[in-house]
Specification:
Length: 638
């Protein structure tokens, strides 16, 4: 009997069931298999990396405010000097990544939303606590302080839910808020103020190719155009210098955005760049120089322009991507920088010496980021001869010899761009599984001129960008280091539409599709996206109210050909997404399953357009890893 009991005990304990990962409380994992706990152990060093981005300079104690994550979501932190402690100053349940100080520093204003819904509210911040300034319901966007610090300007959809009316307020007295201008449309924004604080600088964004600038009299509400309203010209950014000079980024007279001056309705380019876009600029408080960023095929150049002599100096930066320019009242230039080997940190440029100093060194889970592979620029000719490119990350051939699987990862926008930046948890696939990753910039991407960005506009040219994926597939089929029988596709937002469309058009050449916050039907998307952004999206994709355009939108929508989607599908969405409603995911998952296909669906109740909370993002990453190990490598983890 004892022998039988011992044998029975051994039989029940010798092969214990593999531990499984719990599903976070906010997530519904529909059709997703139980994920083994080994995934979390394997991915842990990669999922524990973090980054830091500059947000503002504190004019009182001269600290740099950054946003970084130590718990579940990004919060604001103060850094008093290079490589000093990151002291947390906000403690919210949701991501907090925006802060603006008054010039004297007596008050600071935070802009944040709840659950990724993007209905931003404005708050004052004091002693770690936020005090609400706006109504808690509408969508509000901060435009900054007047130079004397008495007023903030902002837009709000309070009146209609769709129109970005323009308001001013003394944040020390929320009851002082008043509407200055009533407008129509969701593209309006208060860019800044004139030096004397009596006039607002207002922009109206219609499309990536068209925006206009206005002067707003704060006393009367009168709006006077500063640009030619009939011209198809874009003004990406505008800012007044202390002497009243209006500096702008504009593509007037060029295929690219240039830095120059707008005066009497005429734009004059000042910075010397002729080919590449100037992506951003900031003016020093004393007006002596302008810091600006040039986007050279996805790699950043940081330059300083002397506003008197017009001399230009270039900072010495490694190949990578910079952003988030913030100039301190004393002249220090903060910026964020990321590359395949830098996880994303805050740096400061001294304009006197041009020396760059690293201010934060974000943790990378104990891994040495210097060992990561670098990006390789790949350029091909598409079906019509148009040149398209992207960045390829190849696994180390010494560790992974022979042909390797490939994953396409398509950016959103569509007015977006893939950069050679830090890859985060995706580095696990590169470094541990030997999966190559390609980030294409198909037609319609920014960074390559206004002609290129317009090549996918409207419903009748939309599928040309999908055909660009076919050109890349053809290219990699001839690459001796890529296994063309093991290729997958993923993408988010508009990249999610591209994911669905590629899975349908090129399904025979793909092993799976992971489509994130993705458009599945252009008609239902346009009908259900939030009203404040609907007309802006109609300019890009087409107008579903027009019978001819509606017919074409239906024709090119993945839902129309969903019966042709036969490869395994994973769909990720946020319940609070104001851009691409969760219903876009629901309908495609239902249709694929009705056709007998496989569709995993991950829905987060407390997220919007992409997952911001670490707990949710980790689960998404575990499921993604399982999906590609099973479908791309044929070896699901145990």
């Amino acid at each position: 009997m004892r022998l039988l009991l011992a044998a029975s005990f051994l039989a029940t304990t010798a092969l214990p069931a593999a531990a499984q990962l719990p599903v976070p409380a906010a997530i519904t994992a529909d059709g997703v298999p139980a994920l083994p706990a080994s995934l979390a152990e394997a991915l842990r060093p990669y999922s524990e990396s973090r980054g830091a981005s500059p947000v503002a300079w504190n004019p009182v104690d001269r600290s740099l405010i950054i946003t970084t994550r130590f718990a579940n979501v990004n919060q604001l932190h103060s850094v008093t000097g290079p490589m000093m402690d990151r002291r947390q100053i906000t403690f919210e349940a949701d991501r907090t990544s925006s802060l603006t100080y008054s010039p004297s520093g007596d008050v600071s204003v935070v802009q944040k939303d709840v659950g990724g819904g993007e209905f931003f509210q404005l708050f004052t911040l004091k002693d770690g606590r936020l005090t609400l300034l706006t109504d808690g319901k509408s969508r509000n966007s901060l435009g900054g302080f007047t130079r004397d610090g008495t007023l903030i300007g902002y837009t709000s959809t309070k009146r209609t839910g769709a129109d970005n009316d323009i308001y001013v307020m003394d944040p020390r007295n929320p009851g002082s808020a008043r509407m200055v201008a009533e407008v129509k449309g969701g593209g309006w924004g208060l860019v800044g103020f004139s030096p004397d604080g009596k006039r607002g600088l207002v922009g109206n964004y219609t499309s990536i190719q068209k925006s206009d600038l206005y002067d707003l009299d704060l006393a009367t509400g009168r709006m006077t155009p500063l640009s030619d309203l009939k011209a198809a010209v874009s003004y990406a950014h505008a800012e007044y210098a202390p002497d009243g000079t209006l500096w702008v980024l504009s593509d007037e007279g060029s295929d690219f955005q240039r830095l120059g001056i707008l005066k009497d309705g005429k734009f004059t380019a000042v910075a010397p760049e002729a080919k590449w876009d100037v992506d951003a600029f900031r003016i020093a408080d004393d007006g002596s120089f302008i810091a600006y960023l040039v986007n050279e095929a996805g790699r950043s150049r940081l330059k300083l322009l002397d506003t008197k002599t017009r001399a230009v100096r270039t900072a010495e930066l490694p190949a990578g991507v910079a952003g988030g320019l913030e100039i301190a009242p004393w002249g220090a230039v903060a910026f964020g920088f990321s590359s395949p080997r830098v996880s994303g940190d805050a740096f400061v440029l001294d304009p006197a010496t041009m020396k760059v100093t690293q201010w934060t060194a974000s943790e990378t889970g104990g891994l040495d980021p210097r060992k990561n592979v670098d990006a390789e620029l790949v350029t091909v000719r598409s079906f019509d001869g148009e040149e398209v490119s992207g960045f390829l990350f190849r696994p180390d051939p010494a560790k992974f010899p022979g042909k390797r699987p490939l994953l396409f990862d398509i950016h959103g926008g569509p007015e977006g761009q893939s950069f050679p930046s830090y890859r985060g948890s995706a580095n696990y696939m590169l470094n541990e599984l030997g999966i190559a990753i390609f980030y294409p910039n198909v037609r319609g991407s920014t960074g390559y001129g206004k002609r290129f960005v317009s090549l996918d506009n409207g419903p009748f040219k939309r599928e040309d960008s999908v055909k660009d994926i076919g050109a890349f597939l053809d290219h990699f089929a001839k690459d001796g280091t890529i296994d063309s029988a093991k290729i997958g596709v993923q993408g988010g937002s508009y990249g999610g539409y591209m994911c669905y469309a590629s899975a349908i058009r090129y399904g025979a050449r793909l092993k799976g599709a992971n489509c994130i916050v993705a458009i599945s039907s252009f008609v239902t998307f346009l009908e259900n996206t939030q009203s404040y952004r609907r007309d802006l999206r109609r300019v890009e994709y087409g107008d579903e109210r027009d019978p001819k355009q509606r017919a074409k939108l239906i024709e090119i929508s993945p839902m129309t050909r969903v019966n042709e989607l036969r490869i395994p599908l994973m769909v990720v969405t946020g319940a609070n997404d104001p851009r691409v409603p969760a219903s876009e995911a629901d309908q495609v998952v239902k249709a694929v399953r009705a056709n007998g296909g496989t569709a995993w669906h991950i829905l987060a109740a407390d997220e919007g357009h992409g997952f911001a909370k670490k707990e949710n993002r980790d689960y998404q990453n575990y499921a993604t890893l399982y999906f590609w190990q099973a479908n791309l490598l044929g070896q699901p983890p145990k």
